[in-house]
Design goal:
Elements lengths: L1 E5 L4 H11 L5 E6 L8 H4 L13 H8 L3 E4 L6 H10 L3 E4 L6 H14 L3 E3 L5 H13 L5 E8 L9 H13 L20 E3 L2 E7 L5 E9 L2 E9 L6 H10 L6 E3 L6
Parallel strand pairs: 1-2, 1-3, 3-4, 4-5, 5-11, 6-8
Antiparallel strand pairs: 6-9, 7-8, 9-10
The structure holds nicotinamide-adenine-dinucleotide.
The site of nicotinamide-adenine-dinucleotide has 28 residues, from helix 1.
Length: 262
């Protein structure tokens, strides 16, 4: 399969370059990045020269190389535009960039159907994180009270993480009751109790040294139950990305969340 990576100069993009080029059935035919344009995608990924020079023109690269799949790990500010361009070029999508909203997904579904392309979009490609979300959904059926703490490196732009939002959505799907009567709280520092999604508090921590981590803490009478996942480095996401690339031919339309294809 011919692959183009958008955001190939970023932390995740370089990891995807290493992962894709290690697979015999995948062929890296193009790489796009605004900051690293002009450089060899292999050189900046520590592989030595691959002869794939990074371009800053996504549409031109897709038209020139004709890939089956574009992988996008860029930024929440540009990912929708990138996806639109790929769909207009008739290219299927594997997207890991976070910050994509429910409204965005509806728009992509419509556009993908009109263009006859498919997409796998996942806020987290790490298997353990996907299992954490599944188990959180299950536990949410039994525990009424839950809060999410997500911890990421200090360069992450969006907050809360896509994984935290998805986790809250999944817990709310598995719940029998949604309206939890809340104690009136005096927030002495505004926002100190965290943000809220589906009635679930989310707390975002950003620190150097972290990669991607999350705790889902359930509280009940005389007990707590904690699910925790740690991505210790970015290789943790690569088996999921490679699996999504290979599975795209078997899916229908747009799939949101790796849990739907494992
Ligand atoms: P990064 O800042 O290191 O890399 C982003 C790259 O995208 C940069 O090199 C930048 O130059 C490039 N870029 C920006 N706009 C572009 C455009 N219009 N066209 C082409 N390239 C463009 O960020 P990162 O750590 O690699 O993360 C990228 C995204 O992936 C973030 O949204 C992050 O939250 C997400 N992420 C997802 C997962 C997952 O499993 N789904 C895991 C880790 C990170």
């Amino acid at each position: 399969m011919k692959i183009v990576i958008c955001g190939a100069g970023g932390n995740m993009g370089k990891e995807v370059v290493r992962a894709v080029t290690a697979e015999g059935d995948l062929d890296l035919v193009g790489a796009v990045d605004l900051v690293e344009a002009g450089k060899d995608a292999g050189e900046i990924s520590g592989l030595g020269s691959l002869g794939t020079i990074i371009k800053d023109d996504l549409r031109g690269t897709l038209e020139e190389t004709g890939p089956e799949v574009m992988v996008d790990f860029t930024s929440p500010f540009v990912v929708m535009k990138n996806m639109e361009v790929a769909m207009e070029c008739g290219v299927d999508l594997v997207v890991g960039t976070t910050g994509i909203t429910e409204g965005d997904i509806a728009f992509i579904q419509e556009k993908a159907a009109a263009r006859g392309v498919k997409a796998i979009i996942a806020p987290n490609f790490a298997l353990g994180a996907v299992l954490m979300m599944k188990f959180a959904r299950e536990a949410g059926r039994y525990f009424q009270d839950v809060e999410i703490i997500e911890l990421h490196h200090d360069q992450k732009i969006d907050a809360p993480s896509g994984t935290a939002i998805k986790t809250a959505e999944m817990i709310s799907l598995g719940r029998e009751y949604k309206d939890i009567p809340e104690l009136q709280v005096l927030e002495k520092i505004p926002g100190v109790r965290g943000g809220e999604k589906e009635g679930i508090k989310i707390h975002s921590i950003r620190l150097p040294g972290l990669v991607a981590h999350q705790e889902v803490i359930f509280g009940g009478l005389g007990q707590t139950f904690t699910l925790r996942h740690d991505s210790l480095n970015r290789t943790s996401f690569m088996p999921g990305v490679i699996m999504a690339i290979r599975k795209i031919k078997d899916i229908q339309g747009v799939v949101y969340g790796l849990e739907n294809i494992i």
